[in-house]
Amino acid sequence: MSAAIQGQAPYYFVPGPSRHPIMAAIGLFFVILGAGQWVNGSDWGAWSVLFGLVWWAFVLQQWFREAISESEKGLYGHRVDLSFRWSMSWFIFSEVMFFGAFFGALYWLRQHSVPNLGGLENALLWPDFKAVWPSMAAGATASPAGVVEPFTTMGPFWLPTINTALLLTSGVTLTIAHHALRENHRGKTIAFMWLTVLLGATFLGVQGYEYYHAYTDLNLKLSSGAFGSTFFMLTGFHGFHVLVGMLMLLFITIRIMKGHFTPDRHFGFEGAAWYWHFVDVVWLGLYIVVYWF
Fold first, then answer.
1. Is 93 within 8 Å of 228 (Cβ atoms)?
2. Per CATH, the architecture of 77-292 is what?
């Protein structure tokens, strides 16, 4: 700590005992408890989820504020910077595996599960089954008993294509902001960061309207067989990641406006940018596989 007092960061900063981990765990406990009760028909479960989320968000706000304060005091040296980079890299890798599981499920359904159900061994069990993808009409697809209501699939035009343009544009504006920060042009950085946040928010708005259109006009729902479940799981979880990434960029923008970060030390910005570019790449895969194929 004496090195930090003299204006130099310690070799590796180790914070003191903190209440934040246990407090965050308490919030998550109420989220999981409430979610479990909510899906089983208990009305109080929804209030437990809300309480847990508010508690958790409040704790994270305090935790992040403390970490930012430590960073601005110069306590984070080169070794801490490396640990942050490795942590963000492994986090994004875990997200790659997360989406890979859902892409794999979609592939297995289309290439194996549905064709196998249409084989001779199942002909007696489901004589009216047609092994086609997607399952759009009850009685002619994966729902010969009429359990799945007829629906229409979501094509690439025009809402998904508009969202693709929005995300690709946001990747460009974020890159411009990054280069401006490295050149110490804070005004330009802030302007393009706000533009990136606005593009992310617009994406969410368009996706919300897309879901409304799917439910009301196409009768495409989460309960629309294997197609509906995979469609909403992939696009919905991606939308959640866009929300998280947009909030990250929003807070980074506010920090830049407060004078945080330098042209040489700004991993908080870079970590958020890595995550945003990852979200862009995942969407391109979704756009091709889900909407075109």
1. no
2. Up-down Bundle (1.20)
Averaged over 255-260, what is the pLDDT? 91
| Alpha-carbon distance values, 16 to 6, 41, 70, 71, 86 (Å) | 20, 43, 12, 15, 22
Q: Return the number of other C-beta atoms located less than 10 Å from residue 254's C-beta.
A: 12
pLDDT for the residue numbered 157: 87
What distance in Å separates the CA atoms of residue 270 and residue 189, rounded to the nearest whole number? 13
CB 289 within 8 A of CB 103: yes
Q: How far is C-alpha 208 from the chain's CA centre? A: 15
pLDDT for the residue numbered 269: 93
Any idea where the domains of the chain sit in the sequence? 1-76, 77-292
In the block, residue with structure tokens 């794999």: 104
Q: What is the DSSP letter of 150?
A: P
CA-closest candidate to residue 252, choices 234, 263, 237, 268? 268
For the chain, what is the largest distance between any 2 Cα atoms, rounded to a whole number of angstroms?
Answer: 81
Contact call for residues 199 and 177 (beta carbons, < 8 A) = no
CA separation for the pair 13, 82 (Å, rounded): 12
- Give the predicted TM-score (pTM) of the model: 0.85
**1-76 adopts what CATH topology?**
Helix Hairpins (1.10.287)
What does the radius of gyration of the chain's CA atoms come to, in whole angstroms?
24
State residue 3's pLDDT score.
40
Choose between 53 and 225: higher pLDDT: 53
